[in-house]
């Protein structure tokens, strides 16, 4: 089928997943989130009372492949000292395929640096002591949404004391901004991610919004900085990431997120 012949049509969520699977079962696929995507890579809110909304770092995820009917992974690959680096490694001055504390970076997940609360850092998927062994995993849900998980390391480039490790859970469905870790522990914390109050619901989306016949959309994620983080420990953050892929699809969009929507408008009543 030619690209011109691919037109969005109304289908059930399960059919969207089937179209996704049929288009990718026999090949590796790529997801990108950078200046090429409508709206750019996305935005980062917080942590805590840091009110400036930051542009999100670019990412290209290569060699994604399905391992079952509804699950796909980005396998771990480290190019070592001589192989190609991620964009962020070059920007941060890392030279050996490792984070500042010696963790091996998954070079299939190519990320750039970004600035959070005035601090430059490299986000990376790293083979360390997390659940996923340095890989990225995702599942397609019956309602047509996609959930993506990985072990994320934030490297401030100053050695082990500047390493922040946290799980990442992103979805094209919805997430709720959590209260701070301090509040969850019975104390008093900063219960907001910049301009977004804890309790706010943020929605993503998945479909073919640019009409080119390939999957694109928005992943949303929310969490708290680890209690041992050198910046804003325990305080909430929110990530809104726009993405495109080379996964062919013929189906209707799912989800509610609209570009440039003020997330506070999505707050639960």
Which helices and strands appear, and what pairs or packs with what?
Blueprint: H1 13-24, E1 29-33, E2 42-45, E3 54-55, E4 59-66, E5 71-74, H2 87-92, E6 104-105, E7 109-111, E8 114-116, E9 119-127, E10 136-140, E11 146-155, E12 163-171, E13 174-176, H3 181-184, E14 192-193, E15 196-197, E16 201-203, E17 205-207, E18 214-224, E19 236-248, E20 254-255
Antiparallel strand pairs: 1-4, 1-19, 2-3, 2-19, 4-5, 4-7, 5-10, 6-9, 8-9, 9-11, 10-11, 11-12, 13-16, 14-15, 17-18, 17-20, 18-19
What does this structure look like?
By secondary structure, the chain is mainly beta. Helix content is 8%, strand content 38%. The protein is built from three helices and 20 strands. It has helices at 13-24, 87-92, 181-184; strands spanning 29-33, 42-45, 54-55, 59-66, 71-74, 104-105, 109-111, 114-116, 119-127, 136-140, 146-155, 163-171, 174-176, 192-193, 196-197, 201-203, 205-207, 214-224, 236-248, 254-255. The strands form three sheets. It has a 16-stranded antiparallel beta sheet that branches. The chain is globular. The N and C termini lie far apart (45 Å).
What's a concise summary of this model?
The protein has 269 residues and is mostly beta strands. Helices cover 8% and strands 38% of the residues.
């Amino acid at each position: 089928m030619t690209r011109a012949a691919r037109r969005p049509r109304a289908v059930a969520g399960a059919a969207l997943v089937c179209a996704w699977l049929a288009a990718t079962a026999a090949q590796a696929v790529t997801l990108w989130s950078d200046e090429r995507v409508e709206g750019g890579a996305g935005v980062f809110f917080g942590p805590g009372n840091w009110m400036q909304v930051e542009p999100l770092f670019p990412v290209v995820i290569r060699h994604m492949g399905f391992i079952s009917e509804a699950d796909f992974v980005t396998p771990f690959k480290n190019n070592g000292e001589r192989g190609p680096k991620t964009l962020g490694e070059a920007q941060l001055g890392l030279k050996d395929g490792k984070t500042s504390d010696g963790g091996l970076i998954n070079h299939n997940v190519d990320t750039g640096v970004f600035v959070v609360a005035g601090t430059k850092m490299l986000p990376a998927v790293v083979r360390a002591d997390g659940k996923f062994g340095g890989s990225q995993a995702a599942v397609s849900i019956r309602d047509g949404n996609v959930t993506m998980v990985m072990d994320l390391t934030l490297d401030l480039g100053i050695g082990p004391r500047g390493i922040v490790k946290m799980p990442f859970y992103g979805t094209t469905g919805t997430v709720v901004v959590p209260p701070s870790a301090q509040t969850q522990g019975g104390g008093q914390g900063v219960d907001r991610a910049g301009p977004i109050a804890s309790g706010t619901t943020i929605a993503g989306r998945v479909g073919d919004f640019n009409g080119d016949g390939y999957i694109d959309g928005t992943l949303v994620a929310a969490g708290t900085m680890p209690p041992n983080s050198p910046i804003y420990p325990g305080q909430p953050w929110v990530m809104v990431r726009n993405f495109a892929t080379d996964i062919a699809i013929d189906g209707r969009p799912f989800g509610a997120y609209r570009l440039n929507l003020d997330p506070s408008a999505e707050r639960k009543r």
